[in-house]
Structure formats: structure tokens, C-alpha cells
Write the C-alpha cells for this entry.
Amino acid sequence: MSAQRATPPLPDPDDPVLAGYWAAAARGELVVQRCAACDRVQWPPRDTCGGCGPAELRWLLVAGTGSLFTWTVVHHTTVAAYAGALPFAVGAVELDDAPARMLGRLRGVPPEQLETDMPLEVAFEPVAPGIALPVWQPAGGGSR
Amino acid sequence: MSGTCVAGIGMTEFSRASGRSAERLAVEAATAACEDAGLPTSAVDGIVPFPFGPSAEDLIAGLGLPDVTFTAVPHLGGASTVAGLRLAALAVANGAASCVLVFVARNGRSGSRVEQRIGVLLPGQRYRRQLEHPHGFTTPAQWYSMIARRHMHEFGTTREHLGAVALAMRAHAQLNPHAQMHGRPMTMEQYRSSRPIAEPYLLLDCCQETDGAGAVLVVAADRARDLRHRPVHLSGLAEGHPDSPDDLVNRRDFFTVGLTRAAPRAFAMAGVTPSDVDAAMIYDCFTFEVIQQLEEAGFCARGDGGPFVDDGGIALGGRLPVNPHGGLLSDGHIAGMNHVVEAVVQLRGDGGERQVPGAEVVAVTGWGDMGDGAIAVLTR
């Protein structure tokens, strides 16, 4: 009760490359990056386009649905903030509407019931004022 | 690499607490490599350190080297050892140096453990810190277990296949008094009941952490002929990088890694094919990485790695003996410098109880970061 809760590692909402992604997540929206010159979608975001180099990059709103490409079930962590959450699963989610796979914690389903290619939807977990973490749960199954 | 050889090998003991500095371990291994070659330490005029640990400057000071003409640091994570061997051979072949020391030294167990190392070494730190760490996704076991799970889904690779790798490495270590797991045999039941770390990886799918050092000396073949041991030729050397070397999951082909691209170059350079290889030293940071690298290096087709390691396939006496010394899993983890040293031991015929009979061609792979790869083909 009196034990101090460890702070989980937090993203930097002002990161020069990822700020737009974190701003969207704070609004409850999921975005990927798209090159304004060649329309190539890339993930993770970069400050250049892997297709045409230094170009203008924009954020593309996606539906926030996908399927489970692969995952790991974490039973051992050195991150104090997660020690109490073991075991938990982190997955790579293949988006339905953009060529990107996003890493994120999986919730709303026991790790032993996870299945390859199962449909998932994004949910946004507030982790700090103004910062929400996109996590994934069974499609149609969880509460937002 | 036209006309280059490994002329000397040196190792310290492996332990969980060396009781001395990594710099001291490096100097000990380097001195042992020079003695093995029959060269004075002052002959060293090139140094290729591992990207984490003692530097070239540390070795110049520690060995009192009079005139070093070449240094270079590869950055391929765990593949840096084999990539560094290639840098050394390139330097010697081009006359930039005549005797190049390649070494790895660390207190990997008692000092700088893996999470500390990757916090410095890994590419894509922005993604690690912002897109992965907040989800509790922080370790190599977690990243690579994701590849293993997808492979199980696509190709039917099983828990028993992973276990077969762990058991083969442990059995080999029983023939190697230097190995940390010497005297500690293991059963499939012990493997299966080890605690989960990052499923599908159990504790015994993960290599240990080690204090220790290893070093080799690379010289020109015509010089090696006059030295103490039978020369071991560096016949083929290559490195390769995956599509997204800073991100594991967003690559066009999920299983195509650096080794996929490097291996054909190294075998072509050596003028051999994978079927000519008598023994392979595979970078076994985790059990599944052995299966994947056997496939991507061309020892079997993609997807066939599980059956390939089953039924003693990679044990001594099997279709392709892998890591007779016990590998990272059971000998010790000094980023695969022990794999390079073992390749030389085997090609000299000095393997004793664990000698692969008539070994003439040995391949050594390196795996690092988000799928960087390197490979060396050594010949007698």
C-alpha cells in the first residue's frame, strides 16, 4: 500500500519524429506515416522516406484494426513497473488497411488464448497526462 | 579473403565472476593468441575490438604496442565478431596492417549484462525507447521469441525442435572442460520444465552470460606458414543486413535477415557450397536462432530447420555437427569469439574428444541486433 509505484518507461510526446503519432494517440486516433511524394507508407516512422529519401512525410489515419502476426509472452522483466503485471503479452499487429506491423501490449485475453491471425482492435491507455499508449485487444471484445 | 589466415588463438577461462577487469581479460587473451602463434605481442599492428568493451586504445596501452597502423570497429551487434574477422582479413589483404588482433572481452555476467549492452549498441534507439519500452518490450529474448513463434506457425517448428538445439549444445559441452556447463548434463525433461522467460522461450532456450575473453590473430598466408601451427585459411567472409535493420517486424520478408544475403557471398568466395561444410559454428544466442541461421545460411531449406536439428542432426556424428564446444548456450557467451576459436581448433585437428573427424571446411555465423548477419568460411 505504501510502496511507491514504479513509473513505467514513457514515450516523449515531443519527439521530433514521433510527435504526430503521440498527438494522434492522445486524441484516440491511430496513424501511420506516408510519404507525400511517393505515397509509400512506412512504419516505424522516420524523418526520411525509405523510398525517395528526404521528402515530406505526413500522417495517415488508419482504422485501428488488424490481425496478430506474432507475439511473445513476457514472464521475466527487469522493468520494475511491469513486475506486477507478469505474465503479459506483446504482439506485432498487422494492420488491416496499411502495410505496417505495430508492436503493442495485448490486453483483454489471457496469453494462452492468443492465436495467430486473430482479429484485434486498438485501444488507448492513458499512461500520463496527455500521453496515451495504443494497445491491442480482441476485435469487438473489449471496452474502449 | 585472398591469402589470409588465423595464426593464433587465445582464450581466458569462462566464469560468472572473473575478479578482474575486462581490459585485463582482453590483454590475457591477446597475449595467449600471440604465444599460440609464436609471435611477440609487439608484432600486432592492427586491432579490431568488439563494439562494446575494451577499445583498441586499451589494447595499445595494455600490450605496449609500438606502432598500430589499423583499427576499425564493426557495428553488427553479436555479428560484430565475425564481421570484425572480415575487417581484419581485409586490412591484411590490402596491406593496411600485417598482424591484426580481433578480440572480445567482457564481464558479461558480473558486470555489463545484456540490457546494459543493448542500451548502448542497438540501432533504432528511438523505436526501442518510445515504441517498445513503454509496452514492457525490452529484451533480445522477447524480440527473437517473436520470430520463433511465427516460424512455428508457418513451418510447424516445435518445442521439441528448440529443445533439440539446447540438448545438443549441452551434450557437446560435456566434452569440453572449458565450457561453463561442463559437468552439468541436461535432459529434455529438464529443458521443458525450465521456467518461461519470453514464451516460446524458456530459460534453457537462452544462452548464459559469461565473464571471459577470446582473441585471434590474422596474418597473411605466406607468413602463417612459418608460424607455430598449421594455418587456417579465411576463405570466405561476408556481412549482410536485413531490410529494416532497426526494426524486427516490418520487413518485406519476415525471415530474410543479414545472413540470408551474406552466406551466398561467403560460400562463393570460398569456392564451396553449404554441403561441403564439415562443421558449423552457429551464433546460438537462443535456440531458435540456430534453426533460423541453418536455414538462411543454406544448410537446409527455409522451414526445414526444425527437422534438421531433430534426431541428433546437429550433434557430433550427425549430418552437420554444430558448435562442438557447446556454443553460447553451454560453453559461454563472449559474442561468438569462442565460435571462431573453435573453428580453428577443429581445423587444426586439436578438438580431442569433440573433434569432427577430417574437418576441412568450417563455417562460423554471427547474428546481431535486429537480424544483422556475418559469416566466415574457414578451411584447412
About this structure: Residues 281 and 364 of chain B are 5 Å apart (CA to CA).
